[in-house]
Amino acid sequence: MNNTGRRGRERAATDQDIRRTARALLVEQGPEAVTLRAIARELGITAPALYRYYGSRDDLIEHLRADVVADLAAGLAEDIAQLPDEGALQLFAICKGFRRWALTHTKEFTLVFASPAGDDTLSRLGEPFGRIFLAAAGRVLAMHDLVTPSNDVVPAELRDDLTSFQGELLAVLEESGETFPLDKLDLGVTYLMIQFWARLYGHVTLEVFGNYPIPFSKPDVLFDAMLADLAREIGLSID
């Protein structure tokens, strides 16, 4: 065995140790606890040694965030693999799975979705969660005649931003391998997708942090009612 191969495996194993330790600190104590110094202390090494692998804490956090997103997407993919190949059924199952994950992985949710270090997921369309969410949305658009806003109702001040986002959406949907009528993704539909995500994300975030305006004894019912409202507004039924 040559020394290069041995060093490569040692480096990979050390990198796995760093990420595993960072994930444990995240889950146990939250994003603020994930520091190079804390990881080094847990591993029994010096903090400068970590710079062989990560140039800064932000660099490590970005890799950790990517690991969390990949695990979330893998779990959701496993969930919908058990369902019929029907866009609406899968899309709303993803919404429910996202909420379930957020409520049981609050520290990881905070890192990815609710901290300055993380961006809005739909602005990272090429990432696993963005791809699985948008692939299901694309199947809904392809398989159903939805009630969607006309281009005329989109505020003029938002059109340039939505046009840029529309281009990114099309690229991801085409890469998903789905047969998708590109003419269906006009500015009105793009506007609708942003609003859909905002309502889903807003509801889940309020619930995760206990900031809903009033306490509900049956929060599952409230969430399901919100999804039913979203579906009904675009001409779908998820009963």
What's the structural blueprint in terms of helices and strands?
Layout: H1 3-29, H2 36-43, H3 57-81, H4 87-104, H5 106-113, H6 128-143, H7 159-175, H8 187-208, H9 219-233
Give the rounded overall mean pLDDT: 86
Question: Order of helices and strands, N to C?
Answer: HHHHHHHHH
Q: Tell me the name of the CATH class of the largest domain.
A: Mainly Alpha
Q: Return residue spans where pLDDT drops below 50 for at least 5 consecutive residues.
A: 1-13, 117-123
CATH architecture of the largest domain: Orthogonal Bundle
Total helical segments: 9
In percent terms, what proportion of residues is strand? Answer: under 5%
Task: Report how far apart the termini are.
Answer: 60 Å
- Secondary-structure-derived class: mainly alpha
The count of β-strands is: 0
**CATH superfamily grouping of the largest domain:** Tetracycline Repressor, domain 2
Largest sheet: none
GO molecular function, one term: DNA-binding transcription factor activity
Keywords: DNA-binding, Transcription, Transcription regulation
DNA-binding region: 35-54
Domain HTH tetR-type: 12-72
